[in-house]
Structure formats: C-alpha cells, structure tokens
Amino acid sequence: MISRIHPLPAFRDNYIWTVIDGDGGAACVVDPGDPAPVIEFLNANSLHLSDILITHHHMDHTGGLGELIGKYAPRVFGPPGIPGIGKLLAEGDRLEVFGVDFRVFEVPGHTLDHIAYFHAGSKHDTPILFCGDTLFAAGCGRLFEGTPAQMLDSLRKLMVLPPETAVHCTHEYTMANLSFAAAADPANSELQSRIRNEQGKRDIGKPTLPSTIGLELATNPFLRCGLPDLAASAGRRLGRPPTDETEVFATIRKWKDQF
Ligand code: ZN
Ligand code: FE
Fold it and tell me: Active-site positions?
C-alpha cells in the first residue's frame, strides 16, 4: 500500500516524486536528478530508500543515481542504456512497489528511451501515472530525440487512461504552459478557470501537480490536436489547412518552442 506521494522540489522547477510505503518505513523516488533533497527528506522522515524509478536518461532525472545507489542499494528500474539501472523495462512490463502494481508504457518523443509508469487503481486507490517529461500540466515535453508522430502516439497512450488518473509530471511548467495554451486554444473557456485555479496554488507556494488526465484532456492543447479549434490555430500558423493531426501537433509543438 502507498500512504502518500510527496513532491520534493529540485533544481529550478523539477519535482522528485517520493512514494511512501503504507507501513511507513520505506520510500521510492521517481527520477532523482539531485540526491541531496532525497537524502534530506529520507533522514527527516526516518525512511529507507527501497526503490528508484527512472523515466529517461536526462541528467535532471538521473543525476542522483550513483550516490543513492551507493548509500541505500535500492532496486533501480528504468529503460536500457542508463548506468546503474538493475531492472530494465520495456512496453507492457509490470512491477510492484509497496504491493502496488505498475505497468510500463514506452512513450518516445522527448527522448527515444522515455517510459512511463501507470497504476490502474483499485477499490482502495485512484490510478497513478508517472510520466516524466512526456506529458506536462497543459503541455508536453520538447522533442529532443523523437518525431512529432512518435510523441503524438505516446500521448495517445496516456489520453485513454481513466480521467481520474493522477498525473505526476517532473516539472513545474504549468503557468508558462497555460499562457501558451490560451494562445493556441483561445476559445477554450475551461482554460481561463484553470489559469485562475493554478495561479492560486502558485501564489501560496504550492505545486500545481499532480494533474489528472481529465483536466489535461480539457485544457492541454497537445491532447486536443484532433479538435477543429486546434487545427484552425495550426492552420493560421501554416497559412494553409494542416493535412492531418500529426501536422497539427507538429505545428503547435514548434510554435510552443518559440513562444
Ligand atoms: Zn528530460
Ligand atoms: Fe526534465
């Protein structure tokens, strides 16, 4: 059983999601880019680090691995190609953390090795997603390695998850993403209320995360590329109607890079 999932702030805008065992003695961290906040939190709460989950190879997600492995010898799960990972994962693999079952999705786009972890929920808990830098609140990861078509396919795997799924992204990019969303999807009235709501959290220093799949479907332009409004926005950028949803996505993603 998981008792809670706590966001540890790291660097400028990363969160290291810390999953705490219901029995209280152990913790699992997702994407520990920096070992210092993890060690400090574990010490302050008398927790042992039993597991690490990695989503992709970027240093702001993996930089703490060496030190944490040396200190705690946890199980380390992640995609191939990253030093220190003991349990290599691929699409459809399953793992258990504190008796809770997670399934692995390959979600290439931001990087080619990117994976996400999904717990389907049960009578006792809601579905949980750890999606690294693939899906953000009101945004998606930059395409460093993959193509727009790959990223759109990856996002589609996440869009069909239950709407109540708690979406744990790795960066606090929400307010900047929402400014862009308002430009790309100007007629979406749900965006204005989300902006007020999330700004309220930032004003008191709270994370805007986790989000939910339902909220993202309603307000995230990168999940709305199949809708006429986003196609029209992409068409205004292109100066002609986009040929398909992939071109809508590619156009919106490139626009965001320059926004
Ligand atoms: Zn990254
Ligand atoms: Fe990152």
Answer: 56, 58, 60-61, 110, 133, 171
